[in-house]
Design a protein that fits this description.
heterodimer, A: 213 residues, alpha+beta, B: 698 residues, seven-stranded mixed sheet, 23% strand
């Protein structure tokens, strides 16, 4: 319900980007990526039009700030944030399940808002603060939401759990004391096929009551 | 060898599962999480339609894509959407995706077989069962004959971790990762494909992102990964896409169930005829998975005493993905029809549906469960749930189930280290059911040690072999072995303690709460371990020590309370009471989690999930998670799991199957009770509810 698929806040959606790359007007936010801002053949570089920078299809390096650490990653313009983080940074907590923002397994925090990272381009995440489930652990201490998941045995196979944990963190940041209904609604973008939902609700409820917002 | 039952863990054990921290901090590595250096990416080329011939393709363009190593079209036709007609292998995800795009296969689609109701042999033309005459006699002698037909849809497993394999062939050996319910058979399949001995393949499956019956053996993904790795001498990754998961990795077959049952006015069923049809793949036979199941069969009749029944079944081939075992194969769909039929018959003779069930129930355990559940849900008051004015109607329904537990064979190894650490190892896999936790908790409580002293290793083929996790056999089979191995370790340590205390033998030495005792002498676990002369002692057994005792029924009864909006047709499940016989309970968390999960999957099956085929092309319309609807957080009702009469004198029962068997029947009968009309086709979508209401009104 509150989940942002990344397309609006990031400025350029994957579809808009592809339209932009093929010459249509698109986007309104300037993303400055000098390393990537190469020219297509026969054009002068860098090509910036209507605020959109075009990137070479062959790819290049960008810097992403993931879990407070800057990392240089080689991407192509259509690399998703999820692919970049999983395949280049060995941060594999976020999972690719549906690939279209329908299950929440890939949820990350982008500037503290929960985003389906399968729906956000890596180039749109430049300059933003990205937090994965691994990054919620601070100095070896689990985030209170993670601890509540542990205490309530809130999982079965666990494949969806990183997404649920990150979304729950964002939910409690948005709504510090949600009731049961608000928790269900707040998590409605996430799917658990084993259906450990009841334990998940219990965990989020407990984390909220612990005043850990 | 003696077992102190008091040491056998039971309901007071409410600790979270042993591997929960790795699952909440992202450290748990599933098959899909391995990205190996120089790894290749490979995938199958799918057929786009139900029955299609390849007309043209741009294979040369696909081969020219930079980073593409191989593009092969092996078949010129596909028999179902997602049928594998070739493969692509490339150096990167991007190259793979681009090759699949530019390949641009054009198909000529032929008229596909898509609908069970159209393709089945009609009822009148079905062959007769051997006991048809006896069944006819029972019908003739009955005072009332009731007839109805029920239909259930195809459900796809949609485990969140797709089927996948990563194989790194290294000439004389290989390292491989696979998402599986059977480490042993996955490894053996890979070894055969690679031309290696099984012991030369190091196979990992420490974490599995869901296994509901469709993940056995190395399968198509393992085969392709092995072939490409061997051919190119580099690791190769084959992870099926979400679309492929819906199309080509199995499903719960659809069914039509025709029931004609005769009964007496006192409520006793005399017998009748049950004809069922099940949807299978295009080849005319069910493509079976190694774990069993895979046909289109339906377990109808079952649970109730129907008298003399003649049963006929036809597997009906469709141009669509093939069935595989799916959590209690054949059972939930049968109980949907059976429970509705039970209500229908009870109504025909004017009997209360609960009384009718109690009269015809085959299990004493379930009969007792029915009474307890009825009280918990408020059965007696169900007629006062509706005031007659509101458009929202409430109803209560009943579902029954069970599972004949077999125990899977295998071995458990316990290493006790000189520093006091205990390591339990098993090559069986934990798909989320809590197997790691089960054997860990059994061993540590047998020793009386805290979890911190325990390491549990599962999910590798070079660990002591475990069973394939299909048919609810893992916990039931392996729990006794864990007890036996634990006792072997205790006896060995008692021997060391006896020697230290200069006793002739270990008689009289006990181990309680991690302390060895005899009369006034005591010795802590850690100190006893230091008596070892070597680094560790190792104990392994494949013996169940006679602990795999009956009863084995895993009986289940569920009561569902639903609300139906008679203007929109939308069903909301309010509450489910789930009574479940679990045998010897080991860990309350994992048990309750699995019961409630089974119930929610049952709700999802009853109300939402459906493979929809385009009747013109045979293509699946909704092979994506936003259109193939699975129960999400807002669909979850209050669920009260009741662990039926904890009993320490019996064995552990596995819970994969049983809790999901009764749910669809309970929901369907609750809906019928609410609106006064049966919806006889799953899923119970709003349009069908409104149609049932309209039919009732006319």
């Amino acid at each position: 319900m509150h989940q942002d698929n990344g397309s609006k806040s990031a400025g350029v959606s994957r579809r808009q980007f592809l339209q932009g790359a093929s010459g249509a007007a698109a986007g309104s936010v300037l993303v400055t990526l000098p390393q990537l801002a190469g020219a297509q053949e026969g054009e002068a570089a860098p090509a910036v039009r209507s605020g959109l920078t075009r990137y070479a299809a062959s790819g290049g390096n960008i810097t992403l700030t993931v879990n407070d650490r800057p990392a240089q990653i080689t991407v192509t313009p259509d690399t998703t944030l999820l692919e970049a983080v999983r395949e280049s940074l060995n941060l594999t907590g976020a999972k690719e399940v549906c690939g279209r923002g329908a299950c929440g397994a890939c949820t990350m925090l982008v500037d503290s808002r929960s985003v389906c990272s399968c729906m956000m381009l890596a180039i749109d995440a430049v300059g933003k603060r990205i937090t994965t489930v691994e990054g919620l652990v601070k100095d070896g201490q689990l985030d209170p939401v993670q601890q509540a998941f542990v205490d309530h045995d809130a999982c079965q196979c666990g494949y969806c759990i990183p997404g649920f944990v990150v979304r729950s963190r964002a939910l409690l940041d948005e709504t510090p004391s949600p009731n049961r209904e608000a928790i269900k609604n707040g998590l409605c973008g996430n799917i658990c096929r084993c259906a450990a939902y009841i334990r998940i609700f219990d965990a989020v409820e407990a984390a909220a009551k612990g005043g850990q917002a | 060898m003696s077992y102190r039952d008091d040491n056998r863990v039971a309901l007071e054990n409410n600790a979270p599962r042993i591997d929960i921290v790795e699952k909440v901090n992202g450290a748990a590595k599933y098959t899909t999480d391995y990205y190996l250096p120089k790894m290749l990416w490979a995938a199958y080329i799918p057929s786009d339609f139900g029955d299609a011939r390849v007309r043209s393709s741009n294979i040369s363009a696909a081969r020219e894509v930079k980073g593409v190593l191989e593009v092969e079209l092996e078949k010129d036709a596909g028999r179902y959407h997602g049928d594998r007609i070739g493969h692509v292998c490339a150096e990167s995800r991007k190259a793979l995706e681009e090759a699949l795009t530019v390949l641009d296969i054009k198909f000529e689609a032929r008229w596909p077989r898509t609908r069970l109701e159209d393709e089945r042999v009609p009822l009148a033309e079905m062959e007769k069962a051997e006991n048809d005459a006896a069944a006819q006699k029972a019908l003739d002698e009955s005072e009332v004959v009731v007839e109805a037909e029920y239909q259930t849809q195809v459900q796809t497993h949609c485990a969140l971790e797709p089927h996948g394999a990563i194989v790194d062939f290294r000439g004389e050996s290989a390292v491989a990762y696979g998402s599986t319910q059977s480490c042993g058979s996955f490894r053996d399949d890979l070894a055969r494909e690679l031309g290696l001995r099984p012991d030369q393949v190091e196979f990992h499956c420490e974490y599995v992102g869901g296994g509901f019956g469709a993940k056995f053996g190395a399968d198509n993904e393992g085969r392709l990964a092995a072939q490409m790795s061997k051919k190119f001498g580099r690791p190769c990754r084959v992870i099926r896409t979400r679309k492929e998961e819906h199309l080509d990795t199995g499903n719960r077959p659809g069914s039509i169930q025709h029931m004609r049952i005769g009964l007496m006015r006192d409520g006793k069923m005399r017998g009748g005829k049950i004809t069922t049809w099940g949807s299978i793949g295009p080849t005319g036979i069910g493509q079976r998975s190694a774990g069993g199941g895979g046909g289109g069969g339906v377990r109808n009749p079952s649970r109730y005493n129907f008298g003399t029944v003649a049963v006929v079944h036809q597997d009906v081939g469709l141009n669509a993905g093939f069935p595989r075992a799916f959590r209690a194969p054949g059972h939930p769909q049968a109980m949907f029809a059976i429970e509705l039929m039970m209500d229908h018959m009870a109504a025909q003779i004017g009997t209360d549906p609960l009384e009718f069930r109690l009269l015809n129930e085959t299990s004493d355990v379930r009969r007792a469960m029915l009474k307890v559940g009825a009280e918990k849900i408020g059965w007696a008051n169900r007629k006062s749930l509706n005031d007659g004015k509101s458009v929202i109607k409430r109803g209560i329904g009943i579902g029954a189930g069970d599972w004949g537990n077999r125990g899977g064979g295998g071995s458990i190894r316990i290493n006790v280290y000189r520093n006091g650490t205990v390591e339990v190892a098993s090559g069986a896999q934990d798909m989320g059911q809590g197997y790691r936790t089960l054997i860990g908790d059994i061993v540590r409580t047998h020793f009386g040690l805290p979890r911190e002293q325990l390491v549990v290793k599962v999910g590798r083929a070079d660990y002591p072999p475990g069973p394939a996790s299909g048919g609810s056999v893992t916990s039931r089979g392996m729990a006794p072995r864990a007890f036996v191995a634990a006792q072997m370790a205790v006896d060995a340590l008692r021997g060391l303690v006896a020697k230290e205390w200069q006793l002739e033998d270990a008689r009289g030495i006990t181990l309680e709460d991690g302390v060895f005792k005899r009369e006034d002498k005591t010795m802590e676990w850690a100190k006893a371990c230091r008596l070892m002369t070597n680094d560790h002692l190792s104990f392994a057994t494949d013996q169940d020590g006679g602990l795999m005792k009956p009863p084995t029924g895993s009986e289940a009864v569920q009561f569902a309370d639903v609300s139906v909006d008679t203007e929109t047709g939308i069903i909301k499940v309010n509450k489910v009471i789930a009574l479940q016989n679990v045998g010897l309970p080991v860990n309350r968390n994992t048990i309750e989690n699995q019961i409630t999960g089974g119930v929610i999957q049952g709700i999802s099956f009853a109300l939402y999930e459906e493979r929809i085929l385009n009747r013109q092309t045979g293509a699946m319309v909704n092979p994506v998670m936003d259109q193939y609807k699975i129960a999400g957080p807002v669909d979850v009702p209050e669920i009260i799991p009741i662990i039926w009469r904890e009993d320490r004198e019996v064995s552990v029962n596995s819970l994969g199957e049983p809790p999901t068997v009764p749910t669809a029947g309970a929901i369907a009968t609750a809906v019928a009770s609410a609106i006064g009309a049966q919806v006889r086709s799953m899923p119970l979508t709003p349009d069908k509810v409104l149609a049932a209401l309209a039919a009732k009104a006319s």
